[in-house]
Amino acid sequence: MKTQRFDHTNTDAEGELEDDLDLYSGEGGNFYKDMLEEVDESDYLLGKGWIERGHGVFVYAPSGVGKSVLSLQASALWCCGREAFDIEPIKPLRILIIQAEDTKNDLRRMAKLGCRLGFSEKEREQLKTNIYIRRLSGPTGRKFFQCLERYIQLFKPDLVIINPYTSYLGASVYDTPANTLFLRVCLASLLQRYEFAVLIIHHTPKLQGNREEKERLQQQYAGSGPADLTNWARATITIEPCEGQDGVFKFVFGKRWEETTLPSSEGIAHPSFFVCVRGCSGVHSKAFRCFR
Q: pTM to 2 decimals?
């Protein structure tokens, strides 16, 4: 195969290069200018810059831990400007939820959690206007993004939640080209064009067996397809059931947890905390947050 080389005698190519360099003299391209400028906090959405406009987040968890309930509760609180699981929004957020698995009655049952969250009259009005939930089954790949773009144009969200990833990928999660096309081409284009952030729910295998076997499978799983996802994501959360503690789950923030608003000691945030399902007995800790 013949190797293509840059022709430095091609004046047209030099002109194109100069045009490209002109682009980099503006926003985010001039190192000296960036060195002098203050951080622009107007793009912050969650935490202290943990999630900004243009960012993508993956939430990893096995089936049965309540990912849909968690995303619904977080959305309900964030759309009112309240913290959820110790993550604070910078303002009341407009949130678009695209999901493939929950029926109308499933959503109604989950929405009952709102009766326990103590919403004020003002917050109830925000719930009416700041969350839009759309069940979308069927479209995958580029067809999915055609639908998603239309919803974004209509609703103009700050945050989009996609649940789950595999329903819309249209390929195996271990298919690197498919992941690249979905995340780094199609989704990246929308993130840049419409200036929102995205939180993607992804199923992990429900691992069985002894602890050594689970650790081996977790390492194997993390080293294949999902590594593409984590490398793309600006932040990640992994939810792990706690062995021997029914209804207790560990939240692990794998990237950028220093920019969260998680509880801290001596000014240092911790990258993990525990969540207890409502009704679980025998657990007493201020670090627990109920989402059922």
A: 0.79
For residue 236, tell me if it sits in a domain.
yes
Task: Supply angle C-alpha 247, 249, 252, rounded to 5.
Answer: 175
> Is position 8 within any domain?
no
Q: What confidence tens digit (pLDDT) does each residue in 73-93 have?
A: 999 999 999 999 888 999 999
Residue ranges of the chain with per-residue pLDDT less than 50 = 1-11, 13-14, 17, 23-26, 216-217, 219-224, 265-269, 276-292
Provide long-range contacts, Cβ within 8 A and 24+ apart, for 115-120.
Answer: 116/278, 117/73, 117/76, 117/77, 119/76, 119/80
> Residue 23 in 3-state DSSP?
helix
Which residues lie across from 253 on neighbouring strands? 237
Q: Which pLDDT score is estimated for 263?
A: 61
Residue-level pLDDT at 264: 57
Positive or negative torsion for Cα 260, 261, 267, 272: negative
* Tally of residues, the chain: 292
Domain assignment of residue 288, yes or no: no
- The candidate with the shortest Cα–Cα distance to 89, out of 130, 38, 150, 48, is 48
Count how many domains the chain has: 1
- Cα distances (Å, whole numbers) of residue 134 to 2, 71, 76, 159, 265: 50, 14, 15, 14, 40
| Closest to 162 measured CA to CA, from 133, 192, 119, 127 | 133
State pLDDT tens for residues 115-131. 889 999 999 999 999 99
> Measuring CA to CA, which residue among 57, 159, 187 is closest to residue 179?
187
Peptide linkage before 164 cis (omega within 30 of 0): yes
User: In the structure encoding, which two tokens stand for residue 80, read together?
Assistant: 């009112």
Domain containing 203 — which CATH number?
3.40.50.300
